[in-house]
Amino acid sequence: MKKASFLIILALILVNGASAQVIDNENLTVTHGPWLQNLDANGVTILWTTNKPAVPGINITGPDGKTRFVRNSHDGIVDGGGMLHKVRVEGLEPASIYKYSVHSVQIMKYQAYKVYYGDTINRRAETFTTPPLRSDKVSFLVVNDVHNNSGKMSSYFRKGNVSGMDFCFFNGDMVDFLQSPDELFSGFLDSAVTSFASKKPFYYVRGNHETRGYKAREIKNYFDYKDGKYYYGFDYGPVHFTVLDCGEDKPDNNKNYFGLADYDSYRAEELEWLKMEVKSDEFRNAKKRIVIIHMPIVKEEKQNNGMKYLSDNFGPLLQASGVNLMISAHTHRNTFYEAGKSGFNYALLVNSNNSFVEVIADEKEIRAVVKDVTGKQLAEYIIK
Ligand SMILES: [Fe+2]
User: Fold this and answer.
1) Closest Cα partner for 148 from 173, 127, 116?
2) Separation CA 203–CA 328 (nearest Å)
3) 176 CA distance to ligand 1 centroid (A)?
């Protein structure tokens, strides 16, 4: 054997021998979260991710000091095996403080007749408070059009009183597009967790930018939407909230959508739902009604396709239904339309991409304060 051939064979033996001895010494860790969703008087949904496949669970301790362990299952199979975890905890008491920690058990091998477990980790405990069954007020913070600038968003949370609020709305265009889940995390979610989202819930309202990119199809996996829809209603204190999904702004056949947009029929379907929503007891019996939507529903001469459809179809329906306030985003400008000035009879607050809004509502009035990134108050609006 020639010397060169011998050396090649020796090198192959060494490489194969080395690869056979590779050991995965990386510990199981929580990579993102936890963040809270759909917190109500009796339950909460908690999400987080791990760096390796795991079986998720929650240790939760109530005001009585008793701890229970919660895992979810679907169709008889315990949830697990992925790296994104979502656990719903039910059976909570209203207006109570709960301590919880996320629990993950690594799955190293998952075969039909052989499952090997690896590390078990318990994340440090966090707390949250369930809302009361009845409350005479509600407070929340609104942030929008962050467009991946999580540093700016963190300033909002440092200057704003998010810890004193009941929840937060992310009112769309939090990211430019979604080509990978990492854009959610680096774009705003990691900063939200650091600031408040392990202790207070948020509602992630879809903007037009969230519809772009391959992973836009998977947003719902990372959050917990009521009835699995981007449009829904819910009650908190004296307010009924109607959350709407604006869809894309340009016509479905715009070349930038490459034939993959179907928002005209989607908005028509949403409109049918809205007709039912405004007839519901929850909507009609509420002391105050607030609509949250990324693109403002306003009457203007020149409007793009999406906003025109909303103005022509959603606006008159909301006008006839006694909406007190609409909170929107999208234009990157601060604008306030008194009731009647929007072309409809509800007040409309459009928040810019450089400010956030703190809202406190009771049975008498809705008070909205707009603040800039330094926490300086820019405007205050009181809607009776
Ligand atoms: Fe937008």
Assistant:
1) 173
2) 14
3) 9
